[in-house]
């Protein structure tokens, strides 16, 4: 047994978990139905796959949710994990699960996959026979991913940067890189048995005025860190920005850059997909307006030819949606896609050129870091503020980048902090905005820009 | 230039509000030391000491500030921080408390200015006014 | 090229050669060179000077006093840097309490003064100098506000001035102080007459043992069945060292290492035996633990091989308590997340796996209410030390 295998044995040994039978799991994945693999579906689909979010504490309720989704002919099932599990607190997750089962009240905000175990969960995934996507926000996801893959969940969302910087204040980022390397390796190993396991980065980040160059750089770096380990199917993603043109520009640039950088590290046989998240900021409280917002997002997803869309529901402002509401949103989106034909391709050469320059200059600075591994180059770059995510709570994030919307709602950089984008690029960005002399007025505009989708 | 130490007390993850307060203070000419979310009272006081700050501005956005701020008087005495202006703002109550009661309560903990559910700009205007009068 | 690795500890001398790993108690009546060459003459003769590598933690390492302005910044940052530089004994004083602070009797190796960001001044005054005048120390370094440098230099002889360890944004700036302290430790080792003599045996730099262990940490999980997050416990004669993965604690510091180090000066099994016994007697679980180990409390007063074993077992339990939620004096580590415990140092030649496991099981049952325990690895071949020396060797080559 190699050290990696020994490590896996120890990771899955946990008092809340029944023993793992790795041989059996391998056999299961090898002979699993192709319909369980999103990578297979991506290859055989020419439309945008529809995926909501959703996770309930008990098996019964999760099953019911999937039944509703099935009625709506969902393309990809979600499995959203609860917050205790994300912090590896399986003890609290178990307590809350027991209470949820006893009292028929939801005491968790997601499905405690580790407590349920892979044998139970696999019954559900194989019953519905549709791809399932794991949604969480876990810095140390080793046991969680082992359980997910053994359960027949063949898409794993997240990464060391995207699942840390938006949510955590002080989980050591260098440890997160190490733990996610484990995840990549396991996904790569299993990818040899059947269709590839798909990994998906979490592009929205803080979903608060994040400049496109930062989103794209982080997507590319998580992609490279994954491809390095042998993952063969990867989805880059981003959230609706608030400007249709900016979304189109981002989509065009991220596709080109993903190809470019994958080739740069010598990977030519991986499939890169694009995922689009519907508006991740504050939603209107008016439900009809929410429907309009959602529908306009769906339009943009098709416009940019996204391979998958992650949808919201009209209940977004009010908490966790009911199963029916969620399933309705799936059905609505699928309907919209069905009737939306003849969409043009939007190209804006000037914008794309500027964005491409910005991305290249940041990527170059990352590669030029003196560390000898890519993950440490990225770690150092974040530590030095070369990569800086606005509104991140993490102590390592510099928080010196300031952005604001221009008259077309494009997100523009007005303060670059330590980001190595050229003076020309910064001038271009600033030239699009008419900044008030009054600094307080600028702040007020930023506050408005954050809440741009309010009624 | 006044120095302000700011952050969000206790188990709040309201990082957007924290950052907006940060840049608003900077826009108004304050030098800001932002401790971020999930900050403990002792860290706030220690930051005031290390930076010789003029103002401590604590945000609490989910109404649980009370459990955290009672020790303020004690820590103020330990470090002899009589010249510092203590401000607390955000959503300070859990449940239905009257604004005047809340203000009195937090003032008894040692806060000079207490803002319960006030608009950010209004709060900062009042802070600037208070500092102007103080000097 | 085969190597001979030598570790001069405070209690044992250990060597690692192609024949294996051996350790012998030190004879404190002899100079180290003399002691080493007489005990391991055959081995030493087989190697050339450039094939012999020596490290030392003799004399229990440097002792430090840190005088700082606050707990959350000055003291926290300076303490973290000092421990990670290999310092073993750290006492701290909060400046506003200085007038009521006890004065250390023994000679301190280094006094560190810290406080205030660079843009403020007037942090320190007469009270500092008055206190310092009562102290006995070999080195003194200032890593606080730039504005007070002149004032302090004028009033403190031989004051070394370095960059502030607190940045303008209240973050930690570790490199300058870390480098200084690491070099100080180096000089101390080399400065000791009997260590200096060892350069007649070896043409390689002599390092401090904590430095070596620190070099090995990033490689441990790749070489042994050790899973992150882990802790490495080194129970020595004078102190107990613990290295831990930084995701077991949350201290809001951004530093370049994934691991931190803590030292418990009162938990050594020889030189600090009395304080170890005292700590044991004050722990409410110890009597029950002694029961489990099938001995009575009289064992604490005994002088025997078995008593030494029991003491070693107790020190493991006490150090786990000290870093857990049970006694949050230092750092609180989330022991529920801990995946592996590695024991290294002299203790691994004395205790068996079972003797360690029973302690870990007891700790997890009593303090954390769980029967699941992390994996345990006894580094009885000093592989970690070998790994550290190797890592260092590779660095030197670059």
Describe how the helices and strands are arranged.
The complex is a heterotrimer of chains A (455), B (135) and C (398).
Chain A: H1 3-11, H2 22-31, H3 38-43, E1 49-51, H4 59-71, E2 77-80, H5 83-86, H6 90-103, H7 113-116, H8 118-128, E3 132-135, H9 142-150, E4 155-157, H10 173-191, E5 198-200, H11 212-227, E6 233-239, H12 244-264, E7 271-277, H13 287-303, E8 308-310, H14 323-339, H15 349-367, H16 374-383, E9 402-405, E10 411-415, H17 423-431, H18 439-450
Parallel strand pairs in A: 1-8, 2-3, 3-4, 4-5, 5-6, 6-7, 7-8
Antiparallel strand pairs in A: 9-10
Helix pairs in contact in A: 4-8, 4-14, 8-9, 9-10, 11-12, 11-15, 12-15, 13-14
Chain B: E1 3-8, H1 15-27, E2 31-34, H2 41-51, E3 55-60, H3 65-69, H4 72-79, E4 85-90, H5 99-109, E5 113-116, H6 120-134
Helix pairs in contact in B: 2-4
Chain C: E1 4-8, E2 12-17, E3 20-25, H1 32-39, H2 41-45, E4 52-56, E5 63-68, H3 71-84, E6 89-94, E7 108-114, H4 126-133, E8 137-142, H5 149-155, E9 159-161, H6 175-191, H7 193-196, E10 207-208, H8 209-223, E11 230-235, E12 240-245, E13 259-264, H9 273-281, H10 286-292, H11 305-323, E14 340-344, H12 353-366, E15 375-378, H13 383-397
Parallel strand pairs in C: 1-4, 4-10, 5-6, 5-7, 7-8, 8-9, 11-14, 14-15
Antiparallel strand pairs in C: 1-2, 2-3, 11-12, 12-13
Task: Identify the notable features of this structure and list them briefly.
heterotrimer, A: 455 residues, alpha/beta, TIM Barrel, two-stranded antiparallel ribbon, 18 helices, C: Nucleotidyltransferase, domain 5, Rossmann fold, Nucleotidyltransferase, domain 5, 3 domains, five-stranded mixed sheet, 13 helices, 15 strands, globular
């Amino acid at each position: 047994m190699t050290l990696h295998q020994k490590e896996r044995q120890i990771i899955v040994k946990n008092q809340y978990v029944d023993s793992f039978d790795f041989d059996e799991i391998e056999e299961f994945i090898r002979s699993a139905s192709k319909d369980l693999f999103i990578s297979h579906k991506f290859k055989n689909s020419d439309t945008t796959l529809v995926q909501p979010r959703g996770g309930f504490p008990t098996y019964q309720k999760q099953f019911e949710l999937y039944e509703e989704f099935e009625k709506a002919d969902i393309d990809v099932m979600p499995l959203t994990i609860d917050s205790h599990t994300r912090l590896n607190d399986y003890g609290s997750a178990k307590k809350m699960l027991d209470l949820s089962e006893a009292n028929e009240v939801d005491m968790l905000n997601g499905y405690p996959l580790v407590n349920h175990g892979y044998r139970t969960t696999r019954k559900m995934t194989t019953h519905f026979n549709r791809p399932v996507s794991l949604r969480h926000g876990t810095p140390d996801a080793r046991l969680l991913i082992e359980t997910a893959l053994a359960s027949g969940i063949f898409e794993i969302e997240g990464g060391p940067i995207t699942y840390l910087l938006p949510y955590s204040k002080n989980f050591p980022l260098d440890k997160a890189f190490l733990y996610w390397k484990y995840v990549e390796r396991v996904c790569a190993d299993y990818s040899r048995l059947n269709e590839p396991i798909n990994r998906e980065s979490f592009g929205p980040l803080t979903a608060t005025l994040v400049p496109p160059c930062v989103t794209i750089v982080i997507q590319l770096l998580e992609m490279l860190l994954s491809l390095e380990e042998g993952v063969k199917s990867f989805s880059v993603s981003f959230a609706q920005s608030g400007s249709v043109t900016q979304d189109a520009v981002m989509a065009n640039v991220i596709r080109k850059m993903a190809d470019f950088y994958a080739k740069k590290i010598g990977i030519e046989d991986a499939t890169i997909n694009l995922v689009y998240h519907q508006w991740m900021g504050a939603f209107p409280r008016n439900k009809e307006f929410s429907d309009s917002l959602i529908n306009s997002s769906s339009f943009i997803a098709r416009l940019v030819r996204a391979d998958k869309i992650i949808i919201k529901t009209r209940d977004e402002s009010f908490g966790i949606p009911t199963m029916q509401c969620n399933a309705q949103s799936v059905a609505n989106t699928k309907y919209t896609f069905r009737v939306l034909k003849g969409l043009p391709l939007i190209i804006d050469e000037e914008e794309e050129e500027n964005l491409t320059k910005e991305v290249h200059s940041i990527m170059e600075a990352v590669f030029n870091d003196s560390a000898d591994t890519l993950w440490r180059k990225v770690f150092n770059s974040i530590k030095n503020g070369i990569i800086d995510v606005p509104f991140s709570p993490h102590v390592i994030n510099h928080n010196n980048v300031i952005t604001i919307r221009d008259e077309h709602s494009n997100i523009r950089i007005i303060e670059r902090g330590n980001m190595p984008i050229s003076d020309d690029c910064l001038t271009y960005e600033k030239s699009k905005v008419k900044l008030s002399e009054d600094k307080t007025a600028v702040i007020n505009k930023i506050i408005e820009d954050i809440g741009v989708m309010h009624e | 230039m006044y120095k302000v130490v700011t952050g969000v007390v206790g188990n709040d993850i309201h990082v957007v509000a924290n950052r907006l307060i940060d840049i608003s203070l900077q826009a108004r000419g304050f030098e800001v030391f932002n401790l971020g979310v999930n900050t403990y009272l002792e860290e706030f006081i220690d930051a005031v000491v290390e930076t010789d700050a003029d103002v401590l501005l604590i945000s609490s956005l989910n109404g649980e500030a009370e459990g955290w701020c009672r020790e303020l008087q004690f820590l103020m005495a330990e470090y002899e921080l009589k010249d510092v202006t203590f401000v607390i703002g955000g959503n300070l109550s859990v449940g239905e408390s009257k604004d005047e009661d809340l203000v009195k309560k937090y003032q008894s903990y040692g806060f000079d200015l207490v803002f319960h559910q006030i608009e950010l700009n209004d709060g900062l205007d009042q802070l600037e006014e208070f500092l102007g009068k103080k000097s | 090229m085969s190597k001979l690795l030598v570790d001069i500890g405070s209690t044992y001398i250990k060597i690692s050669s192609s024949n294996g790993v051996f350790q012998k108690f030190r004879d404190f009546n002899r100079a180290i060179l003399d002691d080493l060459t007489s005990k391991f003459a055959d081995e030493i003769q087989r190697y050339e000077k450039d094939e012999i590598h020596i490290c030392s933690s003799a004399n229990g390492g440097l002792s430090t006093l840190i005088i700082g302005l606050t707990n959350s910044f000055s003291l926290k940052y300076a303490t973290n840097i000092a421990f990670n530089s290999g310092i073993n004994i750290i006492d701290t004083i909060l400046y506003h309490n200085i007038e009521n602070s006890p004065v250390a009797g023994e000679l301190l190796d280094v006094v560190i003064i810290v406080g205030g960001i660079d843009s403020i001044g007037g942090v320190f005054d007469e009270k500092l100098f008055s206190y310092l005048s009562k102290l006995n120390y070999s080195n003194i370094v200032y890593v606080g506000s730039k504005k007070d440098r002149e004032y302090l230099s004028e009033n403190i002889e031989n004051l070394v001035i370095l960059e502030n360890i607190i940045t303008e944004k209240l973050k930690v700036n570790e490199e300058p102080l870390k480098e200084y302290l690491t070099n100080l430790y180096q000089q101390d080792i080399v400065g000791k007459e009997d260590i200096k003599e060892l350069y007649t045996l070896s043409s390689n730099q002599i390092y401090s043992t904590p430095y070596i262990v620190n070099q090995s940490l990033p490689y441990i999980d790749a070489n042994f069945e050790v899973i992150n997050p882990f802790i490495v416990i080194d129970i020595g004669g004078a102190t107990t060292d613990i290295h831990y993965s930084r995701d077991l604690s949350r201290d809001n510091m951004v530093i370049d290492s994934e691991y931190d180090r803590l030292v418990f000066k009162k938990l050594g099994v020889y030189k600090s035996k009395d304080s170890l016994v005292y700590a044991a007697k004050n722990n409410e679980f110890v009597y029950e633990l002694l029961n489990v180990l099938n001995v009575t409390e009289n064992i604490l007063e005994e002088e025997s091989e078995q008593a030494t074993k029991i003491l070693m077992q107790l020190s493991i339990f006490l150090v786990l308590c000290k870093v857990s939620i049970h006694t949050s004096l230092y750092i609180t580590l989330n022991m529920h997340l801990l995946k592996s415990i590695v024991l290294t140092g002299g203790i691994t030649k004395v205790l068996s796996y079972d003797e360690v496991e029973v302690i870990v099981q007891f700790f997890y049952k009593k303090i954390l209410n769980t029967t699941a325990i992390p994996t345990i690895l006894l580094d009885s071949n000093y592989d970690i030390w070998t790994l550290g020396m190797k890592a260092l060797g590779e660095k030197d080559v670059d």
